[in-house]
Amino acid sequence: MGEKSAPIPARTVLRDPVHFLAFGFGSGLGPKAPGTWGSLAAIVPYLWFQTFPMPAYLAMLVISMVFGIWLCGDSARRLGVHDHSGIVWDEFVGMWITLFLAPPGWLWIVVGFALFRLFDVLKPWPIRWLDRHISGGLGIMLDDVLAGVIAWLGVQALAQLV
User: Which one of 15, 41, 126, 141 is most buried, counting C-beta atoms within 10 A?
Assistant: First the structure.
């Protein structure tokens, strides 16, 4: 879970490529609800990713997850905070998982956003367990990946009902 921690100066984030990406292109700099802002910012690249063929989208997800383990871990280590709340790359990946194969249209983006934020904030089991017991970049990424998978299941179930 993103720790409450001292704000990081914007110049530190914006000038350092690792922090810039880990902080979701700066979207994680806000003092209130950085995970929500990061999740919203993730929609911008998703608008391009949704045009990818399924194998390319899956490849992008795998690369983003593996890269995110290193990225989030390195940023957290350099900041000296296990999971600084401003690190939102994990929210980006969680949103992209949530929206994988979602029906087209803004309604489904909004539904996916709402479900992802719900599971990311509430952290039902096993998400909370992972968040508390796995450290480093893997721990930072895993809880949001799992929240994304659960939200994805919700989006897919709702899409079948409609």
Answer: 141
CB 83 within 8 A of CB 1: yes
Tokens coding 107 = 């309604």
For helices 136-161 and 54-79, what crossing angle results, to 10°? 140
pTM: 0.94
Whether the CB-CB separation of 8 and 91 falls below 8 Å is answered with no
Residues sharing a CB contact under 8 Å with residue 152, sequence separation 6 or more, in sequence order: 97, 98, 99, 100, 112
| 99 in Cβ contact with 150 (< 8 Å) | no
Quick: pLDDT tens for 105-153.
Answer: 999 999 999 999 999 999 988 888 888 889 899 999 999 999 999 999 9
Q: Rounded CA gap, 59 and 65, in Å? A: 10
- Using CA atoms, how far apart are residues 60 and 73, in angstroms rounded to an integer? 19
